[in-house]
Amino acid sequence: MNGVFVTGTDTNVGETYVACARARRGRARGHKVFAFKPIETGCTPTDGGYLGADQELLATAAGDWQTGSLRGLYRFPLPAAPLVAAQQVGSAIDLDLVEQTVRDGAARNGASWTLVEGAGGWRVPITADADMAALARRLQLPVLVVARAGLGTINHSLLTLEAVEREDLPVAGLILSCRETDDLAAAESNLAQIQRSWAGRILILSTDPFVLDRLLPGVS
């Protein structure tokens, strides 16, 4: 299975924004993309159940071919860690089901590139015994870390990268998600400081999604 597991250094760092941009660039490069966020919290109630806004954005970015469980398995109303949100409604998350859905969703639909987005950061609990790192280990995909571009990102980025590497998982890269209100010069300075301690690929995503092509297979 080719692809990446996307995790963030914190909540609201631009994880879904980066994941969607990455899915669209994969399609532009000729891939059939399976973009999947299995678990979403803070979902909106509708007549048909809870709506996972990030799940819908990802599926749309991948070409909007995914249906049913391939658009997302778990949707919880409480904006909290998956374990806490599931417990609040008397539910539990089945990691075996998540893993099987990812593998089957890619294999049975001819996806050449798979993107799985986590929920929250690397150590966020999913079950009483497993966190987001445990899901990434099951999938054995290279990990793409998304971080804020501004103040505080040096520490958060390096700590997350160290935690991922302790799991013996390959790191696809670090993306600093630079919003319109962020100072690009400050983001470039943060990138340079992180590079002093970590030798992997670091990119800044601002207004040019083409920069993400460097993370696709066969692109240097």
Summary keywords:
Rossmann fold, six-stranded parallel sheet, two-stranded parallel sheet, about 220 residues, alpha/beta, globular
**What are the segments in which pLDDT stays under 50 over at least 5 consecutive residues?**
none
**If helices are DSSP runs of H or I spanning 4 or more residues, what is the number of helices?**
7
> What is the CATH fold-level name?
Rossmann fold
Helix content: 25-40%
CATH class: Alpha Beta
Q: Cα-atom Rg, whole angstroms?
A: 16 Å
Q: Helix- and strand-based class?
A: alpha/beta
In this structure, how is the largest beta sheet organized?
6 strands, parallel
CATH homologous superfamily annotation: P-loop containing nucleotide triphosphate hydrolases
What general outline do the C-alpha atoms trace?
A: globular
Q: Main sheet: which strands, in order across?
A: 2-7-1-8-9-10
What is the oligomer described by this structure?
Answer: single chain
Spell out the blueprint of helices and strands.
Blueprint: E1 3-8, H1 15-28, E2 33-36, E3 39-40, E4 44-46, E5 49-51, H2 53-61, E6 74-75, H3 82-88, H4 95-107, E7 113-121, H5 132-139, E8 143-148, H6 153-166, E9 171-177, H7 184-195, E10 202-205
Parallel strand pairs: 1-7, 1-8, 2-7, 3-6, 8-9, 9-10
Antiparallel strand pairs: 4-5
